[in-house]
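Hi there,

I know you've been waiting on this one. I reran it after we fixed the sequence typo, so this is the corrected version. Both the input and the resulting structure follow.
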Amino acid sequence: MNYIPSLKYENGQLTIIDQTRLPVETIWLPIHDLNTACEAIVALRVRGAPAIGVMAALSAIVVFRNSVKAGEAASVERFLEICNTLRKTRPTAVNLFYAMDRMSAKAAGLEGLAADELQQQLEAEAVAIYREDVELCDAIGRHGATLIKEGATVLTHCNTGSLATAGRGTALGAIYTAFFEEAKKIKVINTETRPLLQGARLTSYELVTAGIPTTLITDSMAAMVMKQRRVDLVMVGADRIARNGDSANKIGTLALSILAKHYGIPFYVLAPSTTIDTTIADGSAIVIEERTADEVRSFGERRTAPANVNVFNPAFDVAPAELISGIVTEKGVFHGPYDFR
């Protein structure tokens, strides 16, 4: 099948699909400068941990190339400054830091090269990160599909498909693989994912476009569909996974993991190994991004709550390892106790 791409990199030009406009409009946004790149990440025009990492790597080389004036020498120091600025855009998704660390390390080893050669080698590294994510998604899809039985209904949360990665996706990647490559007759239930409706706007859009049977529910309906045995397994993505398997993902994931455990439904986390942060022992060390109050006070562009009401708006929560039936990476399906080193 043809997946909806989150970004395109052609002839040295980077464009991203503005996900804040989906599914009503499909707008491709060119990335030329650092301010545009950073704003796109912060405003969730590009989102999904793997996609953010790939986009940041490609943005770094585009911004670097465009910032060098005619006749001016390209500076490794300048490139490192660009990477450092991109690192500061969002705190939770580890793939961003992985990509910026990798690009920075590459640049540090290229000191003294002529400008053209420096840019070529940095571009090659960014493109390698892009292509590797496509391959990672394919492998995650294959491993994840083994967990989906014929006739199963999968509940998923937020968006973990091609819009969240450079490839077919993580949790949705497994669903795509099971449906298209293994011809399993499966169904999906996807949550709307408040407050920004990534499930309703993006996952529903991907699945309907692909022709996979899906039913949209509000987040608060998850307990009911599990109690009624309408769900056979839960598959979600992750933005950062600790060494012990604690997994940070879109807010609401913790509740789903608790519900799945209560009702005896398998709960799987699917993510590339680049999402595993081996520097932290458990989820207590994961920094949880808090976003603006207006995301909760409004529904789309319409105010739905008093302008002065207090709001708590964490973007992520952490599902503890003991509630996770398995963690799927490109290397296979892992079961607890987890020890990622």
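Quick highlight: The first strand starts at residue 7 and ends at 10.

Best,
R. S.
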